[in-house]
Amino acid sequence: MTKITYIAPNGSQFDVDADNGSTVMENAIRNAVPGIEAECGGACACATCHVYVDPDWAEAAGEPEAMEEDMLDFAFEVQPTSRLSCQIIVREELDGLVVRIPERQA
Ligand code: FES
């Protein structure tokens, strides 16, 4: 189990126990975290699962791959640590991960 914290724009915090091997998006959906729509179901084709990775976690979460980078062009208010949460695989090294939900999505 890996702990992930999602923070909504209004400051509400959602602490989730996530299974390793699942995605940050899937855990948001399972736990009804507001603002993660995931319209494409995780196919990296919608950008409605956009999150801001906390800067302290950006390195551990890694850089987006080319396809994700292209899809991030369709996300609102992209920041340097923006990621599509369906492309972040939960693993032990991410225990304690903090991601924020963009204002426009919530
Ligand atoms: Fe559609 Fe992530 S769920 S891009």
Structure overview:
The protein is of the alpha+beta class. The chain has a single domain, classed as Ubiquitin-like (UB roll). Helices cover 17% and strands 22% of the residues. The chain has helices at residues 24-30, 58-61, 66-72, and strands at residues 2-7, 13-18, 50-53, 82-84, 97-100. The protein has a 5-stranded mixed beta sheet with strand order 2-1-5-3-4. The N and C termini lie far apart (26 Å). The mean pLDDT is 96. Bound molecules: FE2/S2 (inorganic) cluster. FE2/S2 (inorganic) cluster is lined by residues 25, 38-40, 42-49, 71, 84, 86. Its cofactor is [2Fe-2S] cluster. One of its GO terms (biological process) is P450-containing electron transport chain. GO terms for molecular function: 2 iron, 2 sulfur cluster binding; electron transfer activity; metal ion binding.
Oligomer: single chain
Cα-to-Cα separation, first versus last residue: 26 Å
Pick out the low-confidence regions.
Answer: none
Helix and strand content put the structural class at alpha+beta
Number of individual domains: 1
Strand order of the largest sheet: 2-1-5-3-4
GO molecular function: 2 iron, 2 sulfur cluster binding; electron transfer activity; metal ion binding
Keywords: 2Fe-2S, Iron, Iron-sulfur, Metal-binding
Cofactor: [2Fe-2S] cluster
Pfam family, one: Fer2
Summed up:
The chain is of the alpha+beta class. The chain has helices spanning 24-30, 58-61, 66-72; strands at residues 2-7, 13-18, 50-53, 82-84, 97-100.
Q: Key terms for this structure?
A:
106 residues; 5 strands; 5-stranded mixed β-sheet; iron-sulfur; Ferredoxin; Ubiquitin-like (UB roll); alpha+beta; electron transfer activity; 3 helices; globular; iron; Adrenodoxin-like
